[in-house]
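Batch manifest, entry 17 of 40.
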Amino acid sequence: MDVDIIEEVENPMLHRTDVTFELHHDDATPSRLQVRDSLAAKLNKDANEVVVRKLDTKFGMRKTVGTAKVYETAEAATDVEQDHMLDRNKIGADAEGEEPEPEEA
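Output type: structure tokens
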């Protein structure tokens, strides 16, 4: 899987960079987590600092265009991003607000 960065836009107010990328793959569209890990490696960032927002693959094509938010720190990502996007990207799985599993009696 090859990742090419198309555009990077700095967003200093939110401590992040908005990235548009193109992904070339040989098989089926890779999972969001695979894309996140590849993009993080390409940008020399930790995977918890990268939030993949959108992946768009045209039918029958081996090319995917996507957008991601690359934060300066993982804490900045958890402060700014919506909970469902953090869940989709498996960031902060032990975050506050989760209810503990009920114990059996």
